[in-house]
Amino acid sequence: MKRLHLIALTFLSIFIASAQGKYEGKFEQLGTMLPSPNVYRTASGAPGPEYWQQKADYDIKVSINDKTQVLSGEETIKYYNNSPNPLGYLWIQLDQNIRTQESLANTSEKQQMASKIPSKILKSTAEFSGYEGGFDIKKVTDKDGNDLKYFINGTMMRIELPSVLSNGDTFTFNIDWSYNIYDRMYIDGRGGYEYFPEDDNFAYTIAQWYPRLAVYSDFEGWQNKQFLGRGEFALTFGDFNVEITVPEDHIVAATGSLQNAKDVLTKEQNNRFEKAKNSFDKPVFIVTEKEAIENEKDKSTKSKTWVFKAENVRDFAFASSRKYIWDAQAVKIGDKTPLAMSFYPKEGNPLWEEESTKAVKNTLITYSEHTIEYPYPVAISVHAANQGMEYPMICFNYGRPSKDGSYSQRTKEGMVGVIVHEVGHNFFPMIINSDERQWTWMDEGLNSFMEHVTMTEHYPDFDLTWGTPKGVTNYMRGSKEFIRPIMTQSDNILQFGYNAYGKPSAGLVMLRQTIMGEELFDYAFKEYAQRWAFKHPTPADFFRTMEDASAFDLDWFWKGWFYSIDHVDISVDNVKWFKYTEDKKVLENQVNAEASAQPGGEDKKSNSLEEGPSYFTITDTPDRYYGEFMNRVDSKEVVNKAKDKNFYEVTFSNKGGLVMPLILEWHYTDGTTEREVIPAEIWRRNENEVTKVFVKEKVVSKLVFDPEGELADVEPTNNTFPQADLESAFDKFKREN
Prior knowledge:
The protein is of the alpha+beta class. The protein is 27% helix and 26% strand. It has a domain at 7-26 and 569-736. The strands form seven sheets. A seven-stranded mixed β-sheet has the order 4-7-2-1-13-17-15. α8 (351-370) crosses α10 and α11 (469-476) crosses α12 (496-515). Mean pLDDT is 92; it is low at 1-21, 601-605 and 726-730.
């Protein structure tokens, strides 16, 4: 039909158009995609009134043979059954068994030959390295020394209980074991050692080193997925008493509080240690570089035992070397003063003494503000070549200057970034204890987001692109063949860094900066952290809490960003300019011109802003529009308000599949600009195309969608109307990506 220039019918046509198009349910609630709420986990995302979790306490004695690189240990574990279910057996994780030749990880790994193979690659294989990996389980007994039946299935060991363990009962048992520590230069892994040929010394970073309880939970029962290397850990909380026996000249860093500092440190070192506990302005050197260099020479044949205690932690790791420099600084967090500490060889300096402990401190401050106050007594960064790995209170981090001590800005940013990230893991997942074996994004993604917040606050001059919408644009425009949803089990993910780290973080940045706003987001995010601190959250608990604490329906966002592989590509297809007129001849000429231009009378002509406005008039409203209402609209008043306004009918199309808010930048002919944000719900009746009318005081010269790249839109060339600036927009995109 011919265009009727009646403002009421214009808006009516918009409504009708919005109901058309393919409907894919992007705004349907998650519904059955999430598990049903119950007495353990509520519909609000909070722990339920009958929430429970298990506990396991460890007493461990461990030693390292610095000649043979063999670790030997014996442990006593006390397991608490807090579940309502009787248990006939326990499952133990034996992560070192991933390095046996017959492990599922090794036998299922894809391999192929090449015409040129670096020697390091071949050296990493069992056939060429000669390394024999895996736990040697020497005995498993009850507390009285009686043998217990057990069965080892790859990286899992089932221990048969003499009798059923009922709710409220405990069971105490012992395991003795050993394994060969591996050289991390050849064999990739989270623990192991680095060998320094120039001074013939080792630096041990010991992780996944003891048999430990798997999680038994209300949502899964026993965690029973084999360790394949990528999906990390599902662990239960407990208390640890650990005695670590190493060469006498070694310095040890570990999870927990050092219990016998006077026995293992010199008097002067112990005095420095005590001084550090009240040094808030700068680190105190407990072991200096000069002392570390002297330690490198001694090669003591005597041993010394360091004793550590840690409460309410899910794991325990430690590092040991005679090469370590050690500095520490107190950090004020609420009513606590945890020690930020760094351990590193001289090869890490001067970069490490300048930046490491500072980065630890900065991380504790920012994360504590946005989640929970850091509850542990220490937070430690240990230098380890080519590594970034986290454990409660301790992490192993890369970043090494050149031999002459020089380093690039890139090296500095990489080192600071990995320290912030790994120290941040104390919060996700060491305290807010998600199942990394299933959902990598729940620790890596949330932590990458908080890493970005920390870096933005403390290091604004660094490159802060990673973990933002701009940082994932190239990934999201890539072939769908190589992309999987964020909600993919860890071992099955493609493009792991983007999927589990970058994209989840970018999504949270969008929620905070663009969709929800900082105030609502920060409140809900902190609520999630506080609800699930020292508990076992699932994705549903996170999704539900974020909505519950903000009154923000985000199901459309979770569905699109986390469950699909769609991308953002929203096009500004057309902008039509309208103005009011009372000139009947102008209207008549306009209708005739449109009718002759479009056979059949349908107006499909693209009305460029440069062509000037089309016109509409305003009529008195027919009585039937009022129904039973007795009052009437003053048409003259409406005309007076409309006659100097500019009306812009804008058509957007969703080419990528992901619905998003419309971030609009209006450019006016007087040189000014205006930012306007339309919520994502604009797409709720038509997920493919929407048209909306905007009323402006000024004359528009250009409209730009997502001008700052806040939404990871993969095709900025269709974001501008008119496209006179198309080339410059594309050039800007290429520069920033």
